[in-house]
UniProtKB/TrEMBL annotation:
Annotated ranges, domain Band: 27-197
Name of the protein: Regulator of protease activity HflC (Stomatin/prohibitin superfamily)
Domain of life assignment: Bacteria
Pfam families membership: Band_7
Any one GO BP annotation for this protein: proteolysis
Keyword presence, Ubl conjugation: no
Keyword Membrane carried by entry: no
Species of provenance: Streptomyces fulvorobeus
Amino acid sequence: MADITRRFGWRHLRSAPTAHIRHHKRGKLSHDGTGLSFWYRSLTAALSEIPVDDRELAMAFHARTADFQDVTVQATVTYRISDPAGAAARLDFSVDPDTGAWRSAPLEQIGTLLTETAQQHTLDVLARTPLAVALVDGVVAVRERVAAGLAAEPRLPDTGIDVVAVRVVAIRPEAEVERALRTPAREQIQQEADRATYERRAVAVERERTIAENELASQIELARREEQLVDQRGINARREAEEKAAADGVRTEAEASRKVRLTRAEAEAARDIGAARAEAQAAWLRVHADVDPGTLHALAATRLAENLPRIDSLTLSPDLLTGLLAKLGRPETGTRP
């Protein structure tokens, strides 16, 4: 909407760059263009404001397919007014010279024209298309048909309207029909999920069986190795016992041989010692056999004295000495104190 200000009975209009302004004064065109700014008197001015920017028109309408199913079509049409003069001549774009507001609703008229035209071509396409095909390929078919129909519509060029683009957002059936259509796919998905679950369970069972077999094989192999270990331990124990017995026998024989040799050596030593003692005794006896009795008595007394306890002093009486000498076979020599 144009910006209009008041000054001393005059009006000043300032339009946007995307708005085409047409100013008629006393039936003559005074200003014509986009983004204009000028002064005018409201009593003698006739103003029209035509938007020349791209405009989006969203539309939604119902249609029926070849199998009598109701669907909702959502689409968007982008258009622009390329001929402002033609549009102003065919539609009422006049604005109030005091406020700048449109006196009517020209954009609604354009929207109605585009919507009805698009709906007509959409109905024509979907009426010959089954619901399943419409849901799969209907978006492309409707878009192409609506774009071709709007391009061939004679009223649009006469009104100065160019269709820039046509977009079909969705074609949707009723909620119950949509749920019914989803059911087979959901069932199939559920079946695939169940099959995947069963396969996963089967794989898990197979893996568990493989694991159990491996564990059993491991236990069997462990038992076999334990048996081998027991056998080997028995063999080692028997061999150790045999080796120990052989070693004990060798050690016993060696000890016996050593003891025999030692006993023989001791016996030979005893014999030698006895022989030596016998020879010494015989020699001793031979020596004493040639000695006179008195000497032997003296030697006996000496030996006896060696075995007696220590005597610090000894007192002999004359009588005792005389008797002793008499026993030794010596004459009395007198008495010594």
